[in-house]
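seq as requested:
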Amino acid sequence: MSYDEPLRLPAAAIPDDCRDWTSGRAAGWSAALPPRWTFLRVRRSIAGAVTTLAFCAGAWAAMLGGLWPFVAAGFAVYVLWVLARPELVWAGAPALLLALALEAPSQPWVVTAVVAFVVVVSWAVVAVRLRARGAQIDQALDAAEDGTARTPDADAKVLRGRFLLPLGVVVLALGVLTGATAGLWGTGDDRRVSWVLAFYLAGLGVTAIASAWLGRRRAVALRRTPAPVLRVLVRDDAQGTTEVYASDDLAALRPLFTVDLTSYDGDEEDDDADGDDESDAAGEEADEELERLLDAADDDTPGPVREAVLYGAPFDGAEVVVLSADEDPDQPPLAEWSAGGVRPLSPGAGARRIAKEKAREEQNRQLAEQARESVVDRVPAPVRRWRAGWLDWVAAALLVQWGGWLAWSGITGSELSLWKLALVVALGLYGAVRVPVKLAWRITADRSGLWVTGLGDPRHVPWDDIRSVRRRSFELKLRWRDDDWSVAAPRWAWFERRQGLVHPYDAMAAELSAMRTDPALRPTGESTVPERGRPLWPLAVVLALVWAALLVVLG
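struct tokens:
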């Protein structure tokens, strides 16, 4: 797709005195960003993994080393704040240092000194990151000059935080419940771990509530008075995240920052007395819009470059409103509000992001061409089938090993408590359901559509109902109207690129996508019942019985 001609925003939609945020002015804003070592842009998956590791280490220290559960859980939550919610560090760091000081007499001085050093250093790093926000705001205000305007739908209901707030309340309640029932848990070690879990859940709940409050507060402040406005270019990446570019970066070479946006649905406040027919029509329109958005998300290619007006001075974590040209030229400009904070990109990080995106596009293009050539050159077959291979068997073995290790560690203690038994049983049931699919999944294509195996009878998916077939990370996902199916297997992208290998999921997704878009490439016959595969529930029942027998023998 060419980005030489961005989709134009109507002149009437651009506020008066709205300045262009050119590359020269944007360079000053980028120069004001804090260094990379301030955890400016940590992936959510990495933040979650590091936080989980800190929680496991804290639980282990509380169980074996006698660490106070509040300190063990508090350190894990503090790590999350440092990586993802630095505004809360100002309250978390002093509280954690005070708790360390109170518990210091009962702990080795080395442990106390190391943890205190980590807290103080990370506190200083966060201070550098937060201090840089002022310079970012100043640079954005200088670029906007005196241009201000009220945000679109400024008087509408602010929806920011409507998901995080109830989620935080529920998680906080779970933490309180866990703490209230800690005395009912088996051994002393179990009770200490339960208190760590209780404080950890409470910390996560407080984090979600504070994030909802902070985001809503900033969103309301942005709409209360005229906000600075800047003309920019925007584009949605392959995952649906919006990238913001300088107004003269027509080739979309250097994204300034990314932000998750959501559009406001004013129909939520309409009167419910409009009649069943209108409600059904609105429901169908909503379903169609959802399907369109899912199709766009699964397209695996970035959207077109669009002209836009940015409301609000952007900085690390800021709330913004974006009014942009709709991808459909017949539609009015699209007003979207940030559903998460602004995430800046340094010049180097922006260039790497675009390079990876182009490499992924090229790889997808090559796979699609190879798949089409292989289908075109192949003698037409009545039926085409794909089934689990050795990578799927490796995935099943890893799942069994992981579940077996957790179960063994749970049942080999001095006493098998009720919660451990429940956990082991739940792991066994999960494995009994997932392992058969990993070992024996099958997809059969004939002229009428696809037949997908599962625990029950194979499901039939007509060709016209298929929405997408994509490999995302470790997962192969088939999505059709109102439902989907997925399976996961190991992959090593770097090794595949280095050796010129094609992952089986990539080849299968490309071939099925070619068949979906071109009816001439589809199989010509009708599949028989044996070819479609068998229900997998008998194997699941056998695995569940084997698991139960092992628990009886080992218990």
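The CA atoms of residues 467 and 480 lie 5 Å apart.
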